[in-house]
Amino acid sequence: MQATRRPTAVAAAVLLMLFAAAPAASAAPFSAGTDIVVSGPSALTSCPYGASADFAAAYDDTEVEPQVAVNPANPDEMIGATQQDRWPDGGARGLSSWITHDGGASWGKLPDVPWSACQGGPARFGRVTDPWVSYDKAGNAYFIGQPIDSGALGLSAISVTSLDRSTWSWRPPQIIQEDTGDRGVFNDKVSITGDPTRAGYAYATWIRGSYPNDGKQHPIADLHSFAYRGKPMFSRTTDGGLTWSTPVPMRDSNSYFQGNQIAVGPDGTLYNVAANLFTGAGLNDKGVYMGVMTSRDAGLHWSAPAQIAPIRFAQLFVPDNNFPIRAEDYLPDIAVDMTSGAVYVVWADGLGTALNKVVLAKSTDGGRHWSGPTVVATGGPGVQSYNHAIDVSDTGMVTLTYWDDRNNVLGDGVATTDVWVRHSHDGTATWEPEQHLHGPFDHYAAPISYFAPDDPRGLFLGDYMGLETISGNDTIAFFTSTIADGADVHAIRLNHN
């Protein structure tokens, strides 16, 4: 089945909104560089692999779900990665990556990694998803992806690679986890973190859904046990990505930890943040909270999860017609101040209402206690915000980016969306004036993510966006935005003197 798109408004209406929404001149302290379109035409559009029983065509020339990383040993070097040619029912034909050697002024495409069949990988992997990139202290670059077959919750693997600087290409990927999908076992939502305090160390984490003992007790007993769990998995390298440890769960309990992401503190402590979507018997809302686990020995042992705050879900939607948006809502982003050790976590939360707002929680005692959550996105009543990212500069400046729909006009046929940035110089006690970063763009032009042909999950540009400190107070924002019939990746360097 050919994927469908919702109609966009006429070009004149979009241009009118563009000028109407442009921010007035102000004394805002960020100086935004050129908005650079990083991505270009896809080389994978003729690939015959990846079709499913429900969908025969992917979204050609469409890049979604970007991440970016900055080399601490040479901040002029940065790498970004995205899904390439998104499939409506999950995954993409491939993962693309780009590199800059001039601080983001220009970007070039890196050679493809053989993640999927379309990129020269194993034929069993019709698709791949969830790209993530990171550097360690020494400047070793890491790239992780999740190869899958062409079916929902079927074959899934976790694969990692590192950059070979002698050829400026990625090494052959190593599969560190693979499951066939039998008995409900699947892998999802990967991330990778290079250690800023230990050269050669990096940490991979993801969720592995399964019944106890991987459902090998008895099929009927497993299905009636109400003990399905999502284990936060962990693997590490200590030699710059040449070898990886056998994956182990950070915690093997009847809980479901989604959106795992590791950050490292100045003393080398690892913080794994995740949304715990249920605890106890069955798929219920008992114990639904944002939580963090810590490790003080580079991931060999982990604490029990400390609760940051309850999660109160709200559906993301286009205000015009309540069409769903699939984006980063309860999935967290985490950043650590490498001078003070303060830990910041952001996510989108309904806070007991039907409208998501980006919220922030903060810990100053190593993740044991948390303040918040406090709404940190502006936009006023009736405005939903999401697709948040946070980072802390070398001087302790906290930068936050997010999307919202404050400029949407009901009934005009355009799902108007903008990207915003704000920052704080006092540990988020106060914030400098918010700035308009990008947009408006029409969210209706985004790919639609489906469970099945008659069951859309929503407009999809990614569950994550990229934001990283370059050096000093300079920051790179790396995000997707729609075009007439798809999406491109943009990079904007933000300078603060």
From TrEMBL:
Transmembrane segments: none
Gene3D superfamilies per UniProt: 2.120.10.10
Keyword vocabulary terms for this entry: Signal
Signal sequence, start to end: 1-27
Source superkingdom: Bacteria
InterPro entries (alphabetical): Sialidase_sf
Protein's UniProt keywords contain Chloroplast: no
Name of the protein this chain belongs to: BNR repeat-like domain-containing protein
